[in-house]
């Protein structure tokens, strides 16, 4: 072994104070870095450090190339007399910015999340592990994304992690980005084929965005590409988060088709990440797809010991171990949990859900007949084509039927797109596509029709457009015939617009009935074209009648920029009477419960889980109304009613019996494969018959149900599940939350801090709205510039998290608010520096509680917790001394003096400076500092061991080695306060 490849030991420890670049720094993290220099591998140590004076900068120090030496925090300056007001603000600011250990939830003060005990369960589970590896499998509407964000924020706040990779379906990237920013103040970038060039342009030449940005969101389809995967795994990541983790499980043994190959690639990519990196969060409301081997594949990613297999078909789950890694709760589990908590009411609303059946007009029947003639033509010519092309043709006609059921305008748009494509081919002496999958794969076509998730390659709207244009006709005559059939179908769709019973019922009956309940409604539709159709009809009614005169009508869809969508939603949120029409861009990951209590599904989504996602936007925790209303419009005598309504009703039967909705179509292509196989066994059908008869859908309903979600499969899923299983008890969670408020404070603590800071800097903070607890905060322009904010003409802020969540124009009081964090940093920096007039490290006052001239010292104790890796923990402690008797004061006396009313001391500077020097020169001061540190260390160890015992009694003391092995790195004297007794 050469000298260069030997293990390099760091010269300094985590938590130590060092001097470099003419400043003092605290070491937060130690990282070995391996570099190849002149064909020889060399290892360097780098130190991630924070500026102890409060300036918001984090640097990397490299001892090999710059001088670094051990140092200490300087003592307060006795010749600089500070103010008690500045001092208290300084201490408050330091306390708000401490690094805490495992005895509290620091994520509560570092987020905008409304704290409730059930969402803190995964956080406590995470804190019980050195390497956090969890499956968050709560039901839809319980907030898995928020729970993951809380864990992320908790570990970041404790300096346990720094770099995170978040892998999600393509359609959830922006939602994750928005949630991380809004609730946790985390600036994550989206890495994609389209975004990459822009991200690279912001870096120095040769810079790699995968290594530069610490929080990256990427779609699984993009990330699993071989060339992209190789780049990702070149870099160190502290945590991997994979949302919709059922998409990355290993395909069921024996499946070997186009979609299973894609799933295998996703599984292989996820398995590489799980094996390589220490912290892993998997999120899925439906982690079990009915196949135990697939479910076990994601359990093995978390911890291979959770699963044993005697053969490729026989898997055994170690539930005693797995229960510590899996948080899986139904809504009923949470409701039962909350009944035993401090909350005296169910935080979930009652759901009033029903279907509204629309009787087709003659125009609708004529339109469907015209469309069936087009379908017969496409299906007839598929008889002699390849199997792959047959599938694509089936998905194409299903797509057109689905668009027709949604709205005549959606069908018109699809027909126009297809006719335009036919015209292009006729003009170019058309030749058949050799490889149709290059335009649209069978799996992509299936995802589009069955309302699956969009891919990184194609958005949902792009998938729909390609389904419109996918033409597999092999002759010019066929093209001309198809064009004629489409023109007739379009004429029928135009006639349908004149008597569209669904639109007529919506305008004349359904919305007026809904407005009797409340004046705000959200209408979901699958298609942008249908959205525009609904909006146009409502606006015409608003202009021509008094029925909707006072209502604002808003519309949002996925092709809008995310900020534009948010602005429109904010307008809807503030409106008293309004209708919001939205595609499914607002159906996932966005909480709409504060904006409305009614949803209308304009058509039935063909994916029961997506329907639940839509409904769950308003039917979720925090909904202020006691009841929510959901209405789904269904056209009679269509596929929508005959088939998919049956599937949806079966889904709700399962939810009613078992408390969850399973993931029905892990592979939507299998639906058509199954039906086609059954059809071939039963003999050829008349090719001139309608779509329903050709596929024989209706007669296959019960058979389809038995294949995809039989009672036996559901029971097996229940046996393998962990619903309601947790070793975390309510008392433990609420005790941690209480401890957090006691040591870090809550919104009221921060509000008081803001008020004092505003006063200090000649600003104002006045109550503007008592009901909303909204304050108008104003700061001088130079202060705003210093902390990097612009408060504008009016800046409203509230300590009420519910108000903050429901009002986009009122900011919350939390440490992620840039005004709060900016003031914390400014006060720490200025009150710590002797160069500033707002010096806070020394102070003096008179107290009626003081009997003798005394000094109260506030110290920051820095601990290193000897886990692997080591972690840093800090706390502020005070103690008092009789200045002339030189004896330590009783803790109760110190507390009584510190919390008493303060009066002006009336002393001259010479006397104050003399007494401050006497305090700093106490012969036993060093001994007192060591004693305070030693006593607190013993107390912390005692608390940790009690916690370990408690967790062991609950059966969840896993991976806790080292958390009670604590050393003191330093005891920093932060402030001295002289207290004089009141003269009689």
Please tell me about this protein's structure.
- The structure is a single chain.
- By secondary structure, the protein is of the alpha/beta class.
- A hairpin with a 2-residue loop joins strand 12 (about 305-310) and strand 13.
- It has five domains: about 5-70, Beta Barrel (Thrombin, subunit H); about 110-330 and about 725-730, Tandem AAA-ATPase domain (Rossmann fold, 3-Layer(aba) Sandwich); about 350-355 and about 500-635, 3-Layer(aba) Sandwich (Rossmann fold), CATH 3.40.50.300; about 360-495, no CATH class; about 840-984, no CATH class.
- It contains 35 helices and 28 strands.
Structural class: alpha/beta
Q: What is the count of helical runs?
A: 35
Number of domains: 5
Largest sheet: 7 strands, parallel
| CATH architecture assignment of the largest domain | 3-Layer(aba) Sandwich
**Distance between the amino and carboxyl termini:** 78 Å
> Reading side by side through the largest sheet, how are the strands ordered?
8-9-7-10-11-6-14
The percentage of residues in β strands lies in 15-25%
* Number of beta-strand segments: 28
CATH class descriptor name of the largest domain: Alpha Beta
Return the CATH topology of the largest domain.
Answer: Rossmann fold
Name the shape in a single word.
elongated
- Helicity range: 40-55%
Show unreliable segments: 1-5, 664-668, 678-701
Mean pLDDT: 83
Assembly state? single chain
CATH H level, superfamily name of the largest domain: Tandem AAA-ATPase domain
Radius of gyration: 32 Å
């Amino acid at each position: 072994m050469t000298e260069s490849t030997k293990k390099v030991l760091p010269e300094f420890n985590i938590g130590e104070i060092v001097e470099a670049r003419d400043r003092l720094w605290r070491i937060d993290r130690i990282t070995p870095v391996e570099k190849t220099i002149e064909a020889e591998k060399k290892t360097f140590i780098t130190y991630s450090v924070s500026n102890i004076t409060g300036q918001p900068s984090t640097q990397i120090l490299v001892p090999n190339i710059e001088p670094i030496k051990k140092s200490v925090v300087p003592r307060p300056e006795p010749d600089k007399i500070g103010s008690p007001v500045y001092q208290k603000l300084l201490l408050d600011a330091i306390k708000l910015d401490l690094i805490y250990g495992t005895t509290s939830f620091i994520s509560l003060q570092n987020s905008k999340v409304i704290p409730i005990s059930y969402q803190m369960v995964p956080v406590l589970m995470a804190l019980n592990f050195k390497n956090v590896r969890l499956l968050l499998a709560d039901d839809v509407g319980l907030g898995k994304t928020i729970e993951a964000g809380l864990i992320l924020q908790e570990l970041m706040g404790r300096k346990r992690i720094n770099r995170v990779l978040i892998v999600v379906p393509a359609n959830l990237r922006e939602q994750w980005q928005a949630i991380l920013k809004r609730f946790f103040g985390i600036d994550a970038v989206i890495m994609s084929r389209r975004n990459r060039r822009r991200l690279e342009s912001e870096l120095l030449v040769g810079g790699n965005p995968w290594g530069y940005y610490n929080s990256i969101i990427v779609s699984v389809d993009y990330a699993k590409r071989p060339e992209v995967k190789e780049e990702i795994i070149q870099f160190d990541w502290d945590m991997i988060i994979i949302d919709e983790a059922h998409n990355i499980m290993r395909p069921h043994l024996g499946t070997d088709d186009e979609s299973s190959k894609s799933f295998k690639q996703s599984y292989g990519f996820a398995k590489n990440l799980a094996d390589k990196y220490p912290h892993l969060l998997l999120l899925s409301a439906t982690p079990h797809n009915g196949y135990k081997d697939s479910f076990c594949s994601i359990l093995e990613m978390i911890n291979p010991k959770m699963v044993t297999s005697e053969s490729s078909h026989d898997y055994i789950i170690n539930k005693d171990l797995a229960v510590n890694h899996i948080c899986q709760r139904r809504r009923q589990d949470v409701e039962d949990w909350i009944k035993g908590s401090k909350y005296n009411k169910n935080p979930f609303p009652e759901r009033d859900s029903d279907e509204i059946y629309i009787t087709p007009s003659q125009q609708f029947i004529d339109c469907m007949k015209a469309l069936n003639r087009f379908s017969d033509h496409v299906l007839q010519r598929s008889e002699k084509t390849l199997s792959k092309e047959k599938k694509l043709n089936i998905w194409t006609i299903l797509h057109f039927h689905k668009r027709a059921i949604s709205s005549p305008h959606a069908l018109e748009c699809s027909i126009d797109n297809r006719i335009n494509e036919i015209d292009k081919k006729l003009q170019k002496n058309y030749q058949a596509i050799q490889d149709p999958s290059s335009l649209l794969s069978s799996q992509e076509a299936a995802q589009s029709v069955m309302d699956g998730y969009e891919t990184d390659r194609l958005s949902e709207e792009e998938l729909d457009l390609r389904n419109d244009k996918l033409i597999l006709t092999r002759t010019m005559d066929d093209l001309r015939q198809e064009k004629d059939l489409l023109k007739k179908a379009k004429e029928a769709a135009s006639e349908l617009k004149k008597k569209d019973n669904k639109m007529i019922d919506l305008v004349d009956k359904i919305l007026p009935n809904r407005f009797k309940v409340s004046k705000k409604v959200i209408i979901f539709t699958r298609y942008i074209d249908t959205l525009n159709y609904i909006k146009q009809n409502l606006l015409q009614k608003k202009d021509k009648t008094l029925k909707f005169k006072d209502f604002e009508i808003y519309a949002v869809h996925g092709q809008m920029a995310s900020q534009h969508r948010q602005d429109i939603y904010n307008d809807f949120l503030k409106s008293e009477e309004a209708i919001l029409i939205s595609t499914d861009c607002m159906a996932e990951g966005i909480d709409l419960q504060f904006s409305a209590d009614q949803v209308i599904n304009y058509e039935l989504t063909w994916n029961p889980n997506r329907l639940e996602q839509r409904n769950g936007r308003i039917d979720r925790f925090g909904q202020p109304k006691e009841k929510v209303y959901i209405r789904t419009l269904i056209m009679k005598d269509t596929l929508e009613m005959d088939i998919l309504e049956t599937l949806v009703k079966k889904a709700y039967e399962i939810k009613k019996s078992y408390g969850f909705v399973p993931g029905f179509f892990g592979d939507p292509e299998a639906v058509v494969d199954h039906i086609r196989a059954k059809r071939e066994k039963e003999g050829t059908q008349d090719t001139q018959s309608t779509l329903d008869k050709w596929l024989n859908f209706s007669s296959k309903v019960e058979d389809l149900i038995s294949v995809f979600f039989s009672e036996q499969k559901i029971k097996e899923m229940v046996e393998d599940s962990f619903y309601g299983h947790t070793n975390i008890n309510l008392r433990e969670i609420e005790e941690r939350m209480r401890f957090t408020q006691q040591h870090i404070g809550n919104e009221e603590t921060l509000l008081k801090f803001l008020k004092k800071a505003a006063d200090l800097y000649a600003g104002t903070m006045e109550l503007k709205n008592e009901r909303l607890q909204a304050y108008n905060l104003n700061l001088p322009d130079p202060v705003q510039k210093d902390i990097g904010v612009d408060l504008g003409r009016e800046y409203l802020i509230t300590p009420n998290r519910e108000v903050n969540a429901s009002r986009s124009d009122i900011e919350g009081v939390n440490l992620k608010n840039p005004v709060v964090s900016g003031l914390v940093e400014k006060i720490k920096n200025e009150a710590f520096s002797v160069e500033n007039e707002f010096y806070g490290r020394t102070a003096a006052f008179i107290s009626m509680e003081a009997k003798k001239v005394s000094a109260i010292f506030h110290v920051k104790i820095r601990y290193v917790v000897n886990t692997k890796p080591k972690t840093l923990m800090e706390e502020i402690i005070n103690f008092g001394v009789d200045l002339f008797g030189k004896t330590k004061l009783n803790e109760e006396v110190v507390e009584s003096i510190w919390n008493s009313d303060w009066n002006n001391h009336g002393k001259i500077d010479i006397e104050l400076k003399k007494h401050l020097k006497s305090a700093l020169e106490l012969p036993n001061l060093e001994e007192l500092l060591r004693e305070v540190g030693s006593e607190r260390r013993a107390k912390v160890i005692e608390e940790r061991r009690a916690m370990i015992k408690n967790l062991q009694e609950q059966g969840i003391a896993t991976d806790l080695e080292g958390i009670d092995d604590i050393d003191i790195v330093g005891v920093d004297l932060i402030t001295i306060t002289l207290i004089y007794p009141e003269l009689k």
